[in-house]
Write a structure and sequence with these properties.
alpha+beta; four-stranded antiparallel β-sheet; 4 strands
Length: 138
Amino acid sequence: MSLPHIMLTDSQAHLLAELLLAPLPAREGSDGDTEVSEEGIAARGLDLETTLMDLPRLVFLGLVVRETDVARVTDLGMAVHYERQLGAVQGRLGDVVRFAGAMEESHPLLAQTLRLLANGDITLRMAVTEADSLKRSG
């Protein structure tokens, strides 16, 4: 089963990550809806206005659920968070590989070692050893 493609703003993604660390305390609202605690938001260093705007969207998307005493991340929310993190890591790894390609002409052995490391073909220790031997030889 694949995840639905859900686009989050940076502030929504940040709130989701915060909620993965720990649920936000909540209290019963006057209309029977559960509201997050302003004190809980402030204690986490979150912006009150942004959090109050982002939380309903995360609930609507099914990434967060409001319960009687907390707002917490759902399993879908956890999966979306980690998928987003994976995408960021893959992007950085792609940058490393492109950098190795740019270094190919001026430092071919370093570029090759960097590419092998990025592909998981060698360990960090092996890459450092290779770089040390390159430094000593020239």
